[in-house]
Amino acid sequence: VWGLLQAAAYVYDAQYNRNIPFETSPKAVRLYYLYNHWSMQAATYFFIFVDLALALFEEPAVYLLPFLGKYAVLCLLVFFGRLVHFAQVTPRSVFWKDTKNICIMISILVTLIDLIVYGALRISAIRGIRWSRPLRPIFLINFAESRQIRRAFRSIRNTLPEITYVFLLFMFSVLMFSLMALKLFGDRNLKTVEGSPYFTNYLEIVFNMYVLVTTANSPDVMMPAYDFSWWYCLFFIVYVIINTYIFMSVFLAVVYNNYRKHLKNEIRKLAYMKRRKMIEAFNLLKVKEGAEFVVKEDQWKHLVKLVAPDISTSHRELLLRISDEEQKGCVDKKSFVRLADLLNIQVITIKLHSHPLDIWFPHVYNSTPSLCIRSMVRHKGFVWMYDVIILINAVFIALDEKNPYISYAEWVFLCLYIVEILLKLYTYEPRNFFARNQFWNWFDTSIIIAALIATVLNTALRSVTIYNSQQVLDIVFILRVLRLIRIIDSIQRFRVIMNTLINIMPTMLTFGGLVLVVYYIFSIVGMEIFQGKVKFFAGNTTTPHALYCGNPALKDSTFARAKYCKNNFNNIASSFIVLMELTVVNQCGFALVTHQAAKLYFITFHIVIVIMIIKTVDALLQRMFEAEIPPEEEGPSLDEILNLSPNDAYPKNPVFDNAA
Q1: Where residue 284 sits, what CATH number does that domain have?
Q2: Are residues 86 and 144 in contact, defined by beta-carbon separation less than 8 angstroms?
Q3: Which residue ranges does the record annotate as region Disordered (predicted)?
Q4: Which of 95, 544, 587, 588 has the highest local Cβ count within 10 Å?
Q5: Which tens digits make up the pLDDT trace of 129-183?
């Protein structure tokens, strides 16, 4: 029994691509099962979320709450306990050599010291800086549960050497064009819109030319030179073509090429580790049967029950039939090693149910009119008819809502959609119609029911009282627009693309976690640098400070005139919004209220997010779409083309006669 539990742990690790070396003693294996239990992992993620969310309530806060130190200490205690638990599972030599564990311990110690120092300064009425807060994402990255985020980080790290060479060449191009701009425009006494000298400071030129790569300051940066002579526009056109289009495309090509190369190595490594785990499990359960070692059928069944207790008996029998094709009553080594992969295959059990109406009212349900209705619903013309209705509905949505006829028409469309759902439920068995893999049926029904409830509520409130609830009205409008998405399901190519996006969503969420880490770190740093430098005043304020966002340095600046005052780093939420805008490098106003060197903060953020992470995500999407969407007509391969003579004709759709 003990060997069976240990073997199940190996198979479970192989199934989920975990590479955690654990002690094989009974106590360590029990602790390992507890460590990997879903409740322990959920608790870890919960406290990581709490630790990150503390930034919402700490100064500068979105909602300031007192006594937050105790929650921070509680999170640190949970993290420390989780780390101690992990130390009880893994061998000491492995634990102390693991960089992730060292990072977690150092982060806990540094955060604790920072809390003590910050608390002492607050008692002394001295303003302190929480310099440990940017370390909080380390807990999200380095715990064993976050291996997917670490793999995403590793993918980016592996592409850095090749990206670095392209980036240096790109920066050389920017610097060269900036030097040319200084020589071309610096001595012509040109002025910007604000009246400041145009292209006379080299560092200022470099920043503006870098921003031009993102097109955030186009065509503003070009206009003074263009007004002087239209010939100068050629300089900026050539610059944009080279740096915005060619270099950005080269970045993507380099990232994609390196991503594919390292993806192969990653898959090879995971396959090797998975096979090693499965062999270790096999060695624990094997018995000699004739000339070879095998695992008995009873042992195999007990193992599968331990590893996947939720699968059905029929699913388990199917796996056994695949593993023991010759029905010998045992599983050989080659078939056993495949078990982890077989468990990862999604098996959909289709149960043929009779329609409830066929059971309750068989004569009515199988009558001629009923068969005619069911045949009509199954026909393609029924789908096409509702596609036309959706398109007509789109035209009505775009029309004026205040027109009573348009309002009545919305009720008509809603009734037609409800009739469609009812007819489909009448035709198809409800349990099959709402099966777990029937995403579009769930989507259609949810949208129609939500739209019905919101529309009825909207109408009832209007008839009972003086209605001024814009929120309910907004929900109605959104649901009406979402109904148009249903047409995607009717077009095969659209459906394939949407299903591909749904399938790659877990991977995208992994990179989303990595983006969250970068945003969080830069937000905390940005708050420490720019907090209080820019202030927002409500629209009805009469204070003169509102004209320059509460900072005289922004007086008469484009930043203040454009009313960007709400774009500030005064709390974590505002910082996230500004960083989203900074993705296109368009917040140079902060350099006016601090120092010109602050522009390095924005450039660094853009390099990390856009050039490193987003380009990697682009490469990932390309690779995933290649894998998910099958090519329709590839034509001849390269070898076939090379082997063809000039007189050979390669048929587009060759037909081969049967040789028999």
Answers
A1: 1.10.238.10
A2: yes
A3: 632-660
A4: 587
A5: 888 899 999 999 988 778 888 888 888 888 888 888 899 999 999 999 999 999 9
What is the DSSP secondary structure assignment for residue 196, as one 8-state letter? P
Mean pLDDT over 252-278 rounds to 85
DSSP assignment letter at 197:
B
Rounded to two decimals, the pTM is 0.80
The C-alpha angle 407, 410, 412, rounded to 5 degrees, equals: 120
- How far, in Å, CA of 634 to CA of 520, rounded? 45
* CATH number for position 368: 1.20.120.350
Q: In this predicted model, what pLDDT tens digit does every residue of 45-55 receive, in sequence order?
A: 999 999 999 99
Taking the mean position of all CA atoms in its chain, how far away is CA 458? Answer: 35
Tell me if 607 is assigned to some domain.
yes
Structure tokens at 264: 């192969």
The token duo for 185 is: 């425009």
DSSP calls for 309-360:
TTS-HHHHHHHHHHH-TT--SEEEHHHHHTHHHHHHS----------HHHHH
Residue 309 domain-assigned? yes
Tokens of 466: 């003086």
The per-residue b/e assignment along 364-381, b for 16 or more CB within 10 angstroms, e otherwise, is ebeeeebeeebeebeeee
Residues 203 and 321 in one domain: yes
Asked whether the CA dihedral 14, 20, 23, 26 is positive or negative, the reply is negative
360 and 340, same structural domain? no
173: exposed, middle or buried (C-beta count within 10 Å: 0-12, 13-18, 19+)? Answer: middle
| 473/455 Cα distance (integer angstroms) | 8
Beta strands in 148-271 (DSSP E): none
Q: Are 141 and 153 in contact (CB under 8 A)?
A: yes
Reading across the β-sheet that carries 292-296, which strands appear in turn?
287-289, 292-296, 330-332
Cβ pair 70, 95 in contact under 8 A: no
Residue with tokens 């640190």: 76
29-64: burial string, b at 16+ Cβ within 10 Å, e else: bebbbebbeeeeeeebeebbeebbebbebbebbeee
- Regarding whether 484 and 401 lie in a shared domain, the answer is yes
Q: Are 79 and 111 in contact (CB under 8 A)?
A: no
